[in-house]
């Protein structure tokens, strides 16, 4: 496992220590999990942005979609 060093504002360290204490985990555990969650979300957002930028994907009109979903004319 690789060790990294990061500088954090004092207020963030206080919040980190509070979270670690409540969770009964170490600072490193909380930071590791936070980074894992962030990267999972980042991958999801990146995939969504890529899908939205696909020029082959048609643009749908809201009124048409609403009618189709709700079965209303």
What are the main properties of this structure?
0% strand; elongated; 73 residues; 3 helices; 67% helix; mainly alpha
Care to give the gist of this entry?
This protein is mostly helical and 73 residues long.
Descriptive overview:
The protein has 73 residues and is mostly helical. The protein has one domain. Helices cover 67% and strands 0% of the residues. The chain contains three helices and no strands. It is elongated. The termini are far apart. The model has no long low-confidence stretch (mean pLDDT 92).
Shape assignment: elongated
Output the radius of gyration: 21 Å
DSSP helical segment count:
3
Strand content: under 5%
Report the structural category: mainly alpha
**Average pLDDT over all residues:** 92
What is the assembly state of the chains in this entry? single chain
Count of the domains: 1
Low-confidence stretches are none
- How would you characterize the largest beta sheet? none
Helical proportion, percent range = 55-70%
Distance between the termini: 60 Å
Q: What is the helix/strand order? A: HHH
Instruction: Give the beta-strand count.
Output: 0
Topology:
Layout (H helix, E strand, L loop, with lengths): L9 H14 L3 H26 L9 H9 L3
Helix pairs in contact: 1-2
């Amino acid at each position: 496992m690789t060790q990294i060093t990061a500088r954090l504002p004092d207020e963030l360290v206080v919040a980190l220590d509070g979270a670690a204490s409540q969770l009964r985990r170490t600072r490193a555990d909380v930071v590791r999990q936070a980074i894992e969650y962030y990267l999972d979300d980042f991958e999801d957002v990146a995939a969504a942005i890529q899908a939205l930028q696909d020029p082959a994907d048609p643009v749908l009109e809201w009124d048409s979609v609403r009618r189709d979903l709700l079965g209303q004319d």
